[in-house]
Amino acid sequence: MTQSPDPGRAPTGEQTPNDFATTLAELEALVRHLESGDLSLEASLSSFERGIALVRDARTRLEQAELRVQQLVERSDGTLEEAPLGDAPAGDESTP
User: Fold this and answer.
1) Predicted confidence band at 50 (pLDDT cuts at 50, 70, 90)?
2) Which of 11, 12, 26, 66 has the greatest number of CB atoms lying within 10 Å of its CB?
3) Measured in Å, how far apart are the chain's first and last C-alpha atoms?
4) Can you say where in the cell this protein is located (predicted)?
């Protein structure tokens, strides 16, 4: 018989979910479980450690997504080019 994972008891070395939404959902469930106050000290510490791993995973996923995001920038000659998000457009006179 297979049991569903208990957010209050994350085994050491448990892998992170395959996508950001699942990571976030698991993290939110852990927070609710911790806030309930129904966990022993050991279970709370285990949940906290799992939460830290999930936060790190989510942060890494967001950083990777940010690197992949591109914006189209119109150059002064009217052509479009891709530039990393946050870069000033080429030929933009508004930059110092």
Assistant:
1) very high
2) 26
3) 66
4) Cytoplasm
DSSP 48: H
Q: Where are the beta strands (DSSP E) in 19-69?
A: none
pLDDT for 58 equals 95
Q: Is 79 left (phi over 0), alpha (psi -120 to 50) or beta?
A: beta
- The Cβ of residue 9 has, within 10 Å, a number of other Cβ atoms equal to 15
Q: Average pLDDT for residues 56-75, to the nearest whole number?
A: 83
Question: If we measure between CA atoms, which residue out of 62, 69, 65 comes closest to residue 84?
Answer: 69
How far apart CA 72 and CA 48 sit, in angstroms, is 41
- Read off the pLDDT of residues 3-27 as tens digits, 9 standing for 90 and up: 444 444 344 457 878 899 999 999 9
In contact, 54 and 64? CB cutoff 8 Å: no
pTM of the complete model: 0.60
Q: Which tokens hold the place of 50?
A: 């799992």
